[in-house]
Amino acid sequence: MPGETDVYNVLFLCTHNSARSLMGEAILNNLAMSRGRFKAYSAGSHPADKPNPFALECIQRAGMPIVGLRSKNWDEFAKPGAPKLDFVFTVCDNAAKEVCPVWPGQPMTAHWGVEDPSAVEGSDEKKRQVFSLVFRQLFNRIGIFASLPMDKLDRLSLQKKIDEIGKTK
């Protein structure tokens, strides 16, 4: 449960773990205010073979490293020996409607759905625009989350806050 540890493990979930959830992982792991407080991971129910190149480009444009980012199955985080999760955020509608694995330790969960930039048709420039928009939305939400006074909120208050963050544009 949050408050029992100095570092909170956060898992971002999306169906393919190729764009939104990877962006969430990169943002939280590289946000200055979250360093040392959070360790972010990402996964998907049906992971892609590799990350979306537009997502990686977007992360790099923000000055964040992409080394180590890969699409992975959420089963990795339900196995014995996996990091104990404190928070699990779904960032796409498909993953929110799927039956998630049972996470050891009962992490707090919230749905932070954003548009699927990988589904956008059109020119590369149009795709880049949508990926940038989604990245900014996630960056804003994650920034709010990372600034929460975790040690001053009870579980119910914290749940309310993380649910509200999912409505932030």
Give structural notes:
The chain is α/β, with parallel strands linked by helices and 169 residues long. It has one domain: Response regulator (Rossmann fold). 35% of the residues lie in helices and 12% in strands. The chain has helices spanning 20-30, 53-61, 93-97, 124-146, 155-165, and strands at residues 8-13, 38-43, 87-90, 108-111. Strands 2-1-3-4 form a 4-stranded parallel sheet. α1 (20-30) crosses α4 (124-146) and α2 packs across α4 (124-146). The model has no long low-confidence stretch (mean pLDDT 90).
Q: Features of this protein?
A:
single chain, 169 residues, alpha/beta, Rossmann fold, four-stranded parallel beta sheet, 5 helices
In short:
With 169 residues, the chain is α/β, with parallel strands linked by helices. Helix content is 35%, strand content 12%. Helix 3 links the parallel strand 3 and strand 4.
